[in-house]
Amino acid sequence: MAKKEYDKTLTRLIHILTKLSENERPTTKELADEFDVGVRTIQNDFKKTLSYYPIERDKENRYSFQNGFSLNRAFLDSDEMIVLNLALSQFDDINNMDSIKDRIYKKIVTKSFFNPYYIKQENLEDIDTESPLIEELKANIEQNEILRVKLPTKTTEIEPYKIVNFDGFWYLFAKDLSDEKTKTFKLSELKDIKKIYKKHTTPIKKVESILDKTNSAFYEEGNSFEVVIKVYSEAAIYFKNRDFLQSQKIIKEYEDGSLEVSFEVSHDEDIDNIIKSWLPHVEILEPKRFRDKLTNELEEYLKKVKAK
Fold first, then answer.
1. What's the structural domain count of the chain?
2. Per-residue pLDDT of the chain (308 residues; tens, 9 = 90+)
3. Any idea what DSSP says for residue 230?
4. Residue 139 lies in a domain
5. Which residues of 95-109 are buried (b: 16+ CB within 10 A; e: fewer)?
6. Residue 259 and residue 261: Cα distance in Å, rounded?
7. Is 258:232 a contact under the CB 8 Å cutoff?
8. Which residue segment(s) compose the domain that 76 sits in?
9. Are residues 279 and 234 in the same domain?
């Protein structure tokens, strides 16, 4: 790596880590604009160079350190901290500066130091935030513009609200004006997007309130229902210590340590995988339809296994 390029890369990495340490939560686009590089370069910084740091990306494509992590865990000595806070290019004539830079670079771009954190990142569907589609959608959302889009099954008009991510896949969260229901539309399936030069008046706070309670890409407005499960004592501590969905509520505690827990969901898939992951330590109590559905799935699975 040429010296000038080396310094630019090191400076960029230092500034990125500093921003994360100061809870600035930058996006790849913001960082690319600031450092005058492509979005792909910033994405590679996170995916490769900085991948061993406990960095997470939220549904708004903003990066931050995992709770509890600080740059102090990088084991930087005093000389290195000076370099982190000053422009590197100003110290080329100082004795031993190249070796100090080299030590910093190795700590940033290699896995040579001990890191007590292991964070398994969610695999996100690749999305080009600078693509014409995304740029146009962002403008449409900001301007409250109604769109006509072609879907796999129909052409309809929508009110676009937010670009969201569920289980690693990107969707447009919008209201389908053909049935007046807010739902998700897979970004990769949207075709022939056109403005119809009308605007909606749906308040953004209402949209964000809905998203706060949305648990999966299967959300569809008007389909809310309650699921009640029994959590046996051996798993109860986990449901006490963590809300697996935002709507989770403990409605009863039994003397044997087991719990009754309720969830408000809009689709079976919102909670299906959670329940299956805790079998046989949980039991569906309500609704009966959902209980019977899971029972039938398990019976069918056992039939196939026993038939082999």
1. 3
2. 444 454 677 778 878 888 887 888 899 999 999 988 888 888 888 877 776 677 888 878 889 887 756 665 444 444 454 455 444 444 445 555 556 655 554 554 444 434 444 444 556 677 766 678 888 898 899 999 999 999 999 999 999 999 888 877 889 999 999 999 999 999 989 999 999 989 999 998 888 888 887 888 888 788 889 999 999 999 999 999 998 888 899 999 999 999 999 999 988 989 999 999 999 999 999 999 999 999 999 999 999 998 87
3. E
4. yes
5. eebeebbeebbebbb
6. 6
7. yes
8. 3-109
9. yes
Residues 152 and 196 in one domain: yes
> Can you give the CATH number for the domain in which 203 is found?
2.30.30.100
Question: Distance (Å, rounded) from C-alpha 70 to C-alpha 47?
Answer: 19
In this structure, is residue 104 part of a structural domain?
Answer: yes
Beta strands 181-186 and 169-176 are: antiparallel
Encoded tokens for 22: 């100061």
Cα 191 vs. chain centroid, distance in angstroms?
Answer: 25
Nearest-angstrom CA–CA distance, 37 and 17? 17
187 in a structural domain = yes
Pairing of strands 282-286, 259-265: unpaired
Residue 195 belongs to a domain: yes
Residue for token digits 């075709």? 191
What's the rounded Cα separation, in Å, for the pair 22 and 29? Answer: 18
Amino acid at 266: S
Q: Which residues pair with 57 in a beta bridge?
A: 63
H/E stretch holding 28 reads helix 28-35
Selection from 190, 188, 204, 189 nearest residue 148 by Cα: 190
Which CATH number do you get for residue 287?
3.30.70
The alpha-helical segments, DSSP class H, found in 60-131 are 78-85, 97-109
Same-domain pairing of 138 and 199: yes
In DSSP notation, 132-184 reads: HHHHHHHHHHHTTEEEEEE-SS-EEEEEEEEEEEETTEEEEEEEETTTTEEEE
